[in-house]
Design goal:
By secondary structure, this protein is of the alpha/beta class. The protein has two domains: 130 residues, Aspartate Aminotransferase, domain 1; 238 residues, 3-Layer(aba) Sandwich (Aspartate Aminotransferase, domain 2). The protein contains 13 helices and 13 strands. The strands form three sheets. A seven-stranded mixed β-sheet has the order 2-8-7-6-5-3-4, sandwiched between helices. It has a four-stranded antiparallel β-sheet with strand order 9-10-13-12, with helices on one face. The two termini are 36 Å apart.
Length: 393
């Protein structure tokens, strides 16, 4: 970690990686949380794979991809998060995977309760509400106090578990997309386990910028994206189900292409984006060459802290994400307290300062502006943001 901390400040070192990405002229992108860039070499590999599959068609796919290449890729993804290959299945994105896990969770009975909070992704909230309509369960929806602390987050869940003894399943987002708050997953999952509550983890923003061990976290079910911080093409994600808990997720809508003992039966069977999948060996090689999540996360946190430390506490600005290192990552949200319309301020940042950001709403604490540096962002970019925020406040 000391090496990563020192390197996080080394602009020349990170410029060698930034130079591997093609960037369109225009605004400085501080909305890298939507999806990440592919490196130039990954784009070239992707294009070669498109041409390969187009030329060889089903001959290659039936003889090579389905029988060999897809299994090797699956094993590489399993190594990425330190789990057995038989515990992951490919999906198009985290949302699709999380919907499958929620939809097919088999341990619910009419009258049971499921839990979501205000910071969950809307697709996850919608899937839980679908359970209520179709399984006869009740959705418990909670809001977190603001500003959040480690203890306030954990206590909110503990109090909710005590008040609702019929809770059986909960959604939990590792890194919340609205504010960038990092949830204390291990502590929450341990408290949930004490009450017999299963956790489905949304790891979309965590994979690639936070180091974690699912066994250590106490997580049996999770969904991930590969297009945010790993550097893969769009349309790639995967789910994880602990092998000993596979029977608690039913095959997806009676899926029969794989036996019930195979996790791949838990996702819809379809023709995937094979050219994109074939880029993953190179994508993962570049991810590790960059230092993996440890190096990426430290760099993103460094860039985040550059601007947050300069503007937190200034009149007219509220930084919503706390500074407890357990609770933040590269994504952080703020708002202009003397401006009612945060979208108007996003437009000011773009039009007056050439900075591209995005408004996120839905959290109980109100609309906010999400600021997400990326691997092509620099300390100078953060200084430009600081200047803009100080002048606009």
């Amino acid at each position: 970690m000391p090496d990563n901390t020192r390197r996080a400040r080394d602009e020349a070192f990170w410029q060698t990686f930034a130079d591997r990405y093609d960037v369109e002229p225009g605004p400085l992108n501080l909305e890298n949380g939507y999806f990440g860039r592919m490196s130039r070499t990954v784009v070239e590999e992707y294009q070669r794979n498109i041409e390969l599959i187009n030329r060889s068609n089903s001959v290659y796919v039936r003889q090579r991809f389905e029988q060999d290449d897809s299994l090797k890729i699956r094993a590489q993804l399993a190594r990425l998060i330190g789990v057995p290959a038989g515990s992951i299945a490919l999906t198009r994105n985290a949302s699709e995977g999380l919907q499958s896990l929620i939809r097919n969770y088999s341990r619910l009975q009419p009258g049971d309760q499921v839990l979501v909070c205000d910071l969950e992704y809307d697709t996850v909230k919608g899937a839980m509400r679908w359970l209520a309509r179709n399984r006869g369960v009740e959705v418990v929806e909670i809001e977190h106090t603001h500003p959040a602390t480690f203890d306030s987050l954990l206590n909110t869940y503990r109090e909710t578990f005590a008040r609702h003894p019929r809770l059986k399943l909960m959604a939990l987002t590792h890194v919340t997309h609205r504010t960038g708050l990092v949830m204390p997953v291990q502590a929450i999952a341990a408290a949930a386990k004490e009450h017999g509550i299963d956790v489905i983890l949304d790891g979309a923003h965590a994979l690639g910028q936070i180091e974690f061990d699912l066994t250590e976290l106490g997580i049996y079910f999770a969904g991930f994206n590969l297009h945010k911080w790993i550097g893969a093409p769009l349309t790639l994600g995967f789910i994880y189900i602990a092998p000993e808990r596979l029977a608690d997720i039913d095959p997806d809508m009676g899926e029969m292409h794989y036996p019930p003992t195979d996790i791949r039966a838990r996702t819809s069977y379809s023709t995937p984006n094979i050219p994109a999948l074939l880029t993953l060996p190179l994508v993962l090689e570049e991810h590790w060459a960059m230092g993996g999540a440890a190096a990426k996360g430290t760099r993103l946190n460094y860039l985040r802290n550059l601007w947050v430390r300069e503007v937190r506490g200034l009149r007219g600005i509220e930084v919503l994400t706390p500074d407890d290192p357990r609770l933040y990552c590269g994504i952080t949200s703020m708002r202009f307290t003397q401006q009612a319309d945060q979208q108007l301020m996003v437009e000011r940042l773009l039009n007056d300062y050439n900075l591209f950001t995005v408004v996120r709403s839905g959290a109980a604490c109100g609309p906010c502006i999400r600021v997400t540096p990326g691997l092509t962002s620099t300390a100078d970019h953060m200084q430009h943001l600081i200047t803009a925020l100080k002048e606009l406040r």
